[in-house]
Amino acid sequence: SSHLTILGIETSCDETAAAVVARDAAGRGEILGEVVLSQLDEHSAYGGVVPEIAARAHVEALDSLIAEALARAGRTLESVDAIAATSGPGLIGGLIVGLMTGKAIARATGKPLYAVNHLEGHALTARLTDGLSFPYLMLLVSGGHTQLVLIKGVDDYERWGTTIDDALGEAFDKTAKLLGLSYPGGPAVERMAKNGDPKRFAFPRPLVGEARLDFSFSGLKTAVRQAAESIAPVTEQDVADICASFQRAVSRTLKDRIGRGLDRFRSLHPGIATPALVVAGGVAANAELRATLQALCDAHRFRFVAPPLNLCTDNAAMIAWAGLERMAAGLPADDLAVAPRSRWP
Ligand code: KG4
Ligand code: ZN
After folding, report:
1. Distance between terminal CA atoms of the chain?
2. How far, in Å, CA of 24 to CA of 2, rounded?
3. Which tens digit of pLDDT belongs to each residue from 21-46?
4. 281, burial (CB in 10 Å: exposed 0-12, middle 13-18, buried 19+)
5. Is residue 173 part of an annotated ligand binding site?
6. How far does the centroid of ligand 2 lie from the alpha carbon of residue 314, in Å?
7. Which of 93, 250, 278, 328 would suit a FRET pair with 191, their CA atoms being 20 to 30 Å apart?
8. CATH classification of 134-306 is 1.10.1760.20, yes or no?
């Protein structure tokens, strides 16, 4: 038929997820059934993701999540056309669980297996949600990644900038931890910042003004620690002011770095009247950062595309969709001997 359907599996970090996604001949996608189980409760007592706990939780949950996603889609393992599983980058224990499960299903049903790069899932999501055409720019800001990437086509990506130290989500998490706020840090910092004075502390804006498109956030974290140490005792208002000042510094940094990226895109593709900047990753939940990116895109005559938050954070629909895109582009399925890769740029 002209519709292709695929089962997607995602287990690279602390979300266990399964989804069934369809793609029609015109390239339109539809999520038929999806389910995500967050392991947040299992990890929050440790202030971060514990790899061994994550791997065990994936083992326990994955089979029933796949059954649930299929049920929601009204499908069976026999009635999908292919299987897609994240094979990297990520925590190796979780990757092994998801990829081995995908391989076992592919072996048992005779369906092709697509071993998907998690970052490719994030990169192509906007084509599922907003039907974007190539090329476009993506800003991925999560707990593990901070990247500005030119998306030229399926399997055709050019990384323009990356962090030289901490990921942006990691900077939020470490800042929260320094200030005694809860994990994950991003939402806690954002909540506190609402009542804070963003001008009280002049935090550094790393790499601002430099021509390269990279990011750096570890100096910012150090400045937060020094600010907190310089005040004793630290009141709730102090914490709010530090959070607001931190968020302001991050916003200004992104504005400079991404602004340069938009200019570079424009000079490479002067014929595209309204190019798109897509945001992905958990940090995309931050309202101030979203507003900054929206204003920046308005000023540069770019379209700002922020997919629904549940598709910005880790999920299996994006992995299923990346598999469908690879299929539709005529890329070969993977051999069942394919190995998971914890590092995979
Ligand atoms: O994409 P994600 O759910 O998981 C991966 O890292 O793969 O991103 C989680 C990250 C965490 O570092 C968390 O603190 C951050 O996204 N985050 C936020 C907000 N919500 C989540 N950062 C800033 N502001 C938020 N509202
Ligand atoms: Zn991710």
Report:
1. 35
2. 6
3. 999 999 999 999 999 999 888 888 88
4. buried
5. yes
6. 5
7. 278
8. no
161 is in an annotated binding site: no
Q: Which ligand is nearest to the CA of 171?
A: 1
**What helix, strand, coil percent values describe the chain, rounded to 5?**
45, 20, 35
Topology agreement, domain 4-128+311-328 and domain 134-306: yes
Residues with CB under 5 A from ligand 2 (ion): 142, 314
CB-based pocket (< 6 A), ligand 1:
13, 142-144, 169, 172-173, 184-187, 190, 281-283, 285-286, 313-314
- Ligand 1 centroid – CA 251 distance (Å): 15
- Kindly report the pTM of this predicted structure: 0.95
Fold classified for 4-128+311-328: Nucleotidyltransferase; domain 5 (3.30.420)
* Model pLDDT for residues 189-236, shown as the tens digit of each residue: 999 999 999 999 999 998 999 999 999 999 999 999 999 999 989 999
With H, G, I as helix, E, B as strand and everything else as coil, classify residue 226: helix
Instruction: Give the CA distances from residue 216 to residues 18, 26, 263, in Å, rounded to whole numbers and listed in that order.
Output: 34, 41, 20
Residue 3 among known ligand-binding residues: no
